[in-house]
Design goal:
Two copies of one chain form a homodimer.
Chain A lengths: L11 E5 L3 H12 L3 E6 L12 E4 L5 H9 L3 E4 L6 H8 L8 H7 L2 H10 L7 E4 L2 H11 L3 E5 L9 E4 L2 H10 L5 E5 L5 E9 L5 E3 L4 E5 L2 E7 L5 H18 L3 E9 L5 E7 L9 H4 L4 H9 L12 E8 L6 H6 L3 E4 L10 E9 L9
Parallel strand pairs in A: 1-2, 1-4, 2-3
Antiparallel strand pairs in A: 5-8, 6-7, 6-8, 9-10, 9-11, 9-13, 11-12, 12-15, 13-14, 15-17, 16-17
Chain lengths: 365, 365
């Protein structure tokens, strides 16, 4: 189903997934007078604490999914590993965005990278690997160090291994239990960045200023805006996001993770068809955050102004760091805790944003 | 019960009242990883849409109130007409702030004004009225035009009448069905202002920059910060708020409504022992909003930084104006809709905040 008119205040937004992204989407919907119905397999989902209604269920329980869809005026999801079939099932009853096509093009690294390069946008060189033979061939073709990644279900560095020889490529494939993989050229990047942008039902497009991102152990540690991107690079990043969004007929917020090479080249690392950790600073530094922007887009509302009014540094609160919540509460800045009861190493428990006066003119759309 | 230690993330904040203030308090609690349990007589309360748990009940159902209190780690309220006895009952089980003393001193205009003047803080001249005889005497003592107000349960201009003669004073008392009243001198003020401030469990104090307020038909239309107050007046307003908060042993956010006279004098109009409409702009213009500040205070957390990082204009969306939500959504700025299904004339349906660069240095605590 297509959205034929905007979801009016009082309507219900369905959200698949009840983690911190679903929670912040539900909070953003509330701000606009929209109700949230969150669907998640975890009975203790963080987002359940802040929504009008919730359902505990699996993504492949299509009867429960249909009942959920029928209770909503528009449906979205918080993360890209929702089965595309689930989103297609929902779309029979209720407009669901981003659509199944966006999921199909981003859930599989090989499909994703082929799609990106088909648009004339650069990625690291990549090769499909699904056997010992193709692992060796791919390494030979690459001719240098690379990173083996499973094609599906990777995030925060899971399902990845650096490889410096054909033997290591074979061992990596073994460690993935022979799940289909890609071998990517190792990019000795200068730094990482991302672009978070939105496309509306009417084809309108709005991008936030791209932050520079610092990862530790494959998990985002810090995002800084403005980072080191030049105005020309920021424009290029915006064009990349727009090109991808338009090719996908995308509705909602998407993020494109980028490697910035020493020669100034931008390479796309991956596309996240959803709100993104590196955009959490928009909650304070913009009047319309990425979460509200996403809700606006999938509810058929006009997109909001993405221009930032402050410099910002976002810092994740990971695992046991959350124990010091009182220390964070004493620091000047914006503290967000996600309502997760269980602390696990590296788990995203909250984030902290510090604002400062604008030091460079913000990017205007 | 006193708060002996802060309510840790994962704990539950109880909120009496489920209107827009309760809703925005629940949303602020969520940001800090705290759950909200909202208690309200209205089964369609706006705040029910965004909280972890809710109870439909009356404030005088002390058994239900006790169960509610026992489910919470700290309790607060969204408006000052909660019976002080209800708050006292809760405090037997769970820390409840602001306390019953703050309610007793602000629910009755005569008690409130006597309390304020006892602190050496100025109000308009006022006289108690409870009969035709005292109405005539009060008017004679006043010697000029005044405003008759019921002592209890007034808000947004309800229970008020301008009087220009002893006869009109008597008629006003009749129109109140002889509810006890006060006759106040009519203040030909230059403009209105307010100060929103917080006092923490540890006695710390934090005030927001005082806005200038524009009312229409006794309802707040617009708040502007910075308004026309001079730095000296802003300091005086802050001292007034602090004096009142300390005299009440207050914990939480309070607002003091002020008349700014043509000679520069500040007169206190009334005290609101709660978050206040004229402080809604803090959601965007400060990193810690009045709602989060209130939750921090009543949960025993350190107060947050109240310094604003932008100029702001807050505009209420009243009654039928909410029909044009799509028009508001197209304007650059922050739109908040309260999730109220029923539109009534003058009802507060939402608000809209526009930010601008700082034009004056913001007040620092």
């Amino acid at each position: 189903m297509q959205l034929t008119s905007p979801v009016a205040p009082g309507g219900t937004i369905g959200i698949l997934g009840g983690g911190q992204l679903g929670r912040m989407l539900a909070l953003a919907a509330a701000r606009l007078g929209l109700k949230a119905h969150v669907y998640c397999h975890d009975a203790n989902a963080a987002a359940f604490q802040v929504c009008d209604r919730h359902t505990v269920g699996e993504f492949d329980d299509l009867a429960a999914i249909a009942r959920f869809a029928l209770s909503c005026d528009a449906v979205t999801f918080e993360f890209e590993n929702v089965p595309a079939a689930t989103v297609e099932h929902i779309a029979q009853f209720t407009p669901a965005n981003p659509g199944a096509g966006a999921l199909r093009n981003t859930q599989d690294r090989l499909v994703e990278k082929s799609f990106i390069t088909s648009l004339g946008v650069n990625t690291a060189a990549f090769f499909a690997v699904d056997s010992e033979k193709t692992a060796r061939e791919a390494f030979a073709a690459l001719g240098g160090p690379g990173v083996m990644k499973t094609r599906r279900l990777g995030y925060d560095g899971k399902g990845q291994a650096k490889v410096a020889s054909a033997e290591e490529a074979v061992r990596a494939l073994d460690s993935f239990r022979h799940a289909p993989a890609v071998l990517e050229a190792f990019v000795d990047f200068f730094y990482e960045a991302s672009i978070v942008a939105a496309r509306g039902v009417d084809g309108s497009f709005a991008a936030y200023d791209p932050p520079e991102n610092i990862h530790e152990h494959h998990i985002l540690r810090r995002s800084i805006v403005p980072g080191r991107l030049t105005p020309a690079q920021a424009s290029e990043a915006t064009i990349i996001a727009r090109t991808i969004a338009e090719a996908l007929g995308y509705i909602g917020v998407l993020a494109v993770e980028l490697f910035v090479c020493r020669d100034g080249t931008l390479l796309v690392n991956e596309i996240a068809p959803r709100v993104h950790n590196s955009g959490h600073w928009t909650l304070e530094a913009c009047t319309v955050s990425q979460f509200e922007q996403h809700i606006r887009a999938i509810a058929g509302w006009p997109l909001g102004d993405p221009v930032r009014h402050a410099d910002a540094t976002l810092e994740n609160i990971l695992g046991g760091e959350a124990v010091d919540w009182a220390g964070y509460a004493r620091r000047p800045g914006a503290l967000h805790l996600y309502g997760k009861s269980e602390v696990r190493p590296g788990r995203k428990m909250g984030h902290f944003t510090t604002l400062g006066p604008l030091t460079k003119p913000p990017r205007r759309p």
